[in-house]
Amino acid sequence: MIDSMASEAENSDEFSDGAPVRIGLIQHACGPDPSENRQRTESMIRKAVEGGAHIVATQELFHLPYFPQSQDPGNFRYAEPVPGATTDHIVDLAAELDVVIVASVFERRAEGIYHNTTFVADGTRTDGGRITARYRKMHIPDDPRFYEKYYFTPGDLGWQVCATPRATLGLLICWDQWFPEAARCTALRGAQILIIPTAIAWSQDESAEAHRRQYEAWLTVQRGHAIVNGVFVAAINRTGIEDALRFWGRSFVAGPDGAVVAQADGDADEVLLADCPLSEIRSWRNVWPFLRDRRIDAYDDLTQRLID
Fold it and tell me: Which of 28, 58, 69, 233 is the 20 to 30 A CA-CA neighbour of 34?
């Protein structure tokens, strides 16, 4: 059965939506200086575009150290308005390179109200580059070394998608990637590629076996999102050691059949390029029609915290 499904999915000429979309994922370590991190990211974005990327995505909080390891009011200095200096820089870069860039920032919405925010800078527009979408992280973790609830107000913009000349992008951020509801709601809005900037790491005092199990769970759940929604999933994770955390990198792209299309190394700065043939979405949804067979009349319980 699986062989016949794969055969039909590969035979997609009649469903062709044009050439594959090439996406570039920017994975790197971050130091304490935001300007140096920003310069490193810019250099890698340029490399991705030289490699043919149409859409380039950064990791979570790409130009900042991962400050939520502690609850320190001094870290609010990293926050900035949107639009602001960092978003303006990315928009100008996208316009110069004629590319779409998805980037992640610490948004200062007002004094005392801050968000973990992703924005889309579309530099391919004839009227000049500009921000065409913004998403505020919905699921906010609060765990040892991941004290994000101290800094980030939960998102209030809902699930966001953004149509670009090459693909419709669904915007999620890190902790969102563990929730099937987030991937499903975004896919239902027409997303073809889920873009998920990430900062996920191991505690250095954990065992190698614990590291392996956490990584396998992270990879597996996101491959599952790709399968059950019939979309591409792109997760971009930082690398390097910051205080007690070792970020495991391994940015990857999975196709609508769950297969890993491309994956980065775990320890190195890397520009990961992956081709996403969007025609595969139609082909795999035809053989696995999960969206058709949903019992939307029977899911009211999902709005409850727990069914006692």
Answer: 233
pTM > 0.85: yes or no: yes
pLDDT digits (tens, 9 = 90+) for 40-85: 999 999 999 999 999 999 999 999 999 999 999 999 999 999 999 9
Is residue 39 within a helix (H) or strand (E), and if so which, with residue range? helix 34-50
C-alpha span between 179 and 221 (Å, rounded): 9
Among the listed residues 154, 86, 155, the one whose alpha carbon sits nearest the alpha carbon of residue 121: 86
Q: Kindly indicate the confidence band of residue 17, based on its pLDDT and cuts at 50, 70 and 90.
A: low
Element (H, E) at 48: helix 34-50
Q: Where in the sequence numbering do the catalytic residues fall?
A: 60, 137, 174
Q: How many helices (H) and strands (E) does the chain have?
A: 6, 17
Query: In the numeric block, which tokens belong to residue 52?
Result: 């043919």
Could you tell me which CATH number the domain at 2-303 has?
A: 3.60.110.10
- CA gap 125, 122 in Å, rounded: 7
What residue spans define the domains of the chain?
A: 2-303
Element (H, E) at 218: helix 208-229
The continuous run of DSSP H or E covering 42 comes out as: helix 34-50
